[in-house]
Amino acid sequence: xxxxxxxxxxxYPDDMWLDHDINRMLDEIRKYLPEEVPMVSARTHVPMxxxxxxxxxxxxxxxxxxxxENGDIEAAAKRLMRLKPSVFAYYCTTASFVQGVAGDEAxxxxxxxxxxxxxxxxxxxxxxxxxxxxxxxxxxxSPYMEDVNRALIGFLAECDIEVVNSNPLxxxxxxxxxxxxxxxxxxxxxxxPEADAVLISCTGQKTADFIGDLEEEIGKPVVTSNQxxxxxxxxxxxxxxxxxxxxxxxEN
Length: 252
Known about the structure:
- The protein is of the alpha/beta class.
- Helix content is 43%, strand content 15%.
- It has one domain: Rossmann fold (3-Layer(aba) Sandwich).
- The strands form 2 sheets. The chain has a 4-stranded parallel beta sheet, sandwiched between helices.
- Helix 3 packs parallel to helix 5 and helix 6 crosses helix 10.
- The protein is globular, with a radius of gyration of 17 Å.
């Protein structure tokens, strides 16, 4: 294989707080990248709600909007420039879909204007992956609160993808602490016959070690945030990703 002189610049919101959880998430991201593609990463600040806070309906959507708009994303991208990335990927699904397609496009444009380099997001990559697989109807599983789940459904509808069933687990923050077996079971429960595929949304979810078996069990493609982002970022760098056991997406 020819040597690849490309590096992915990954930006993600620091909503897990413990290095243990952050390191597990970064390991998960790398599992969906070809070995020849190195990754450098930077995190953005996330305000944390008190555990006993009484949150109104819409609070998690408001947090997603804050993450998208507060300027930390461009600052993180600029910090990464000294490590010479080739492409940027923003690894937060909620912040990139919560304001619809226009918000997702605006987020990418801000990074591109700040750095002069191309950028994708988890949400853009999910749409590209589903379209590549010919998916028009999807079942979803996620750790989201109900307001964010509705925003995801609306975003996908803008992209001509119908959500025929959804199973949000209602975690406000700390999405990275959801056990892999919990999100796997959520995906199984969400699947319905009319769905062309199952989407596991949220970059905090650890799916790489079970996605192949899950696809075999349900008999249809499974797309995840980290999987789709790694797939699209690799293609943007001119690398044809072939990762056995990481889903049929990497066979297309």
